[in-house]
Every structure is written in C-alpha cells, then in structure tokens.
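Lab notebook, design round three. We kept the backbone fixed and only want residue identities now. Task for the bench partner: fill in a sequence for the structure below.
Input structure tokens:
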C-alpha cells in the first residue's frame, strides 16, 4: 500500500488546510477525514476531543499514514500532546498565526472556538510572544455550524458575524483561529475591509514539507485524495465538492 498523508478535522473546515497542503505538495497521496458526526469540536471538552482524535488517527494509520496533519485548531490545542506520545509517526498541528499578525502592528483579534481560546496552549503562545499591542480573544464558536451546513450566504449569518465582531471594528489584524473561518473571509472583510486576515495554512504546509524532506519520505508520484466522513459517503462527497469549489482560495503568505 502506498504511504499517505492523513488529514483530519471536526468537519469541513480542514478542507481549507488540505487545499494548502495539496498546493505545496501536489504529488502526495492524501486521506482526508471529516468527523461531521461530532462537529463542532469547539464546544467539547479536551478529554472527549482527544478520544475522538485517537479514533481518527487509528483510522488514518490503517490507511498507511506516514504523517498526520490535525487540520483543526481545537483538536490541536486539546489533543496533540497525547497524540504525539501515543504514535510514532509525526503529528503536525494547526496553531493560530499570532506571530506574523503581531509583526504587522496594531490591534490583533484572535477569532477562534471556545475550546481553542480557553486552552492553556494558546495562552502560553501569546505570553511567549510578549505582545506590545492589544490582543483580544473573540469566540466564534457559533459560526462553525453555519459553515458546516453551507449557510454562510444568508442575511441571518451575516448578522451573527456582525454581532460577534461589532466591538472589534478597530482591529488591524484578524487571526483565524479555526480552519472553518477561512471560508468566510468575505463575510469578515465586509465588516473590516482594511483589516489583515491572517491564517497559518501555508506555514503548516511548509512544516509538513520540511518533515517529509528530513525523513526522506517525499513521494512525489501518487497525486490522489481520498475523502471520508464519520457520517458516511454523502458527507464525504460534500467534502470533495467543497475542496473542488475552493481551489482558488487565497492564504496569508507568512
């Protein structure tokens, strides 16, 4: 069996990360797993998220994963330490791209899920960067369900985005602390047209490339993506369609 790159998220958000990975390493064999049945992770506790992540990693390893990318900020903050202790293969996570945002100067907001924002991992990261300007944590958990249900073009959704960000209209930088949020960049831009929207997708892709190079595991001859969902083939097909539809998506280039 050909070695693969396992990628997973609580649902469809990680498709944005998959696009960045594929753009950076186009000839690899990817296996994407969306845990739609248990989405969103952002309202679950660390123990439950870790349990779910272990089950998914076991599935991806059964698909001959040589490395696993957690395309989910919430699962990264809750489970990556346990996963790295449990498995011998490299586990790569997603972290909010705070450092490049701070380098741009001005007030920065981190738009994330409840679990990501309250976890010690994020607080430790912010402290280590010793920010000189204001950082505000903004809970966007309720946005995830609408993105999962493809309900982002409605007036109701835009009102929810507006309510969440209405106190932060002076922000210069918006760090997307959830892979789902890359799909609503236009919604955010309509409220804060001059703000920099910062994500860490390409940084994660570059990290994957470095690890595969160091381990001499670059395949380069098996361009393929398999899609799976905990809710079955219909949802896996939706993930595939979302991937195809967003090929031109733009990422923040760190």
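Proposed sequence:
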């Amino acid at each position: 069996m050909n070695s693969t790159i396992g990628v997973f998220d609580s649902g469809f958000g990680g498709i944005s990360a998959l696009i960045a990975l594929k753009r950076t390493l186009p000839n690899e064999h990817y296996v994407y797993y969306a845990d739609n049945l248990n989405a969103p992770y952002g309202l679950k506790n660390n123990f439950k998220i870790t349990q779910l992540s272990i089950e998914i990693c076991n599935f991806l390893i059964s698909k001959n994963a040589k490395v696993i990318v957690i395309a989910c900020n919430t699962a990264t903050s809750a489970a990556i330490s346990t996963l790295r202790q449990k498995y011998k293969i490299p586990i790569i996570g997603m972290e909010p791209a705070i450092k490049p945002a701070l380098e741009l100067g001005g007030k920065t907001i981190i738009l994330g899920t409840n679990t990501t924002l309250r976890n010690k991992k994020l607080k430790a990261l912010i402290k280590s960067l010793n920010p000189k300007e204001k950082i505000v944590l903004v809970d966007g958990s309720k946005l995830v369900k609408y993105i999962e249900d493809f309900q982002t073009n409605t007036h109701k959704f835009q009102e929810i985005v507006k309510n969440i960000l209405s106190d932060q209209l002076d922000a210069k930088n918006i760090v997307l602390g959830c892979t789902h949020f890359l799909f609503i960049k236009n919604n955010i831009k309509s409220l804060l047209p001059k703000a920099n929207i910062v994500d860490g997708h390409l940084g994660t892709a570059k990290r994957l490339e470095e690890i595969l190079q160091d381990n001499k595991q670059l395949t380069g001859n098996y361009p393929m993506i398999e899609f799976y969902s905990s809710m079955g083939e219909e949802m896996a097909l939706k993930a595939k369609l979302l991937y195809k539809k967003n090929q031109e998506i733009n990422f923040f280039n760190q």
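Keep this in mind before ordering anything: The CA atoms of residues 10 and 39 lie 5 Å apart.
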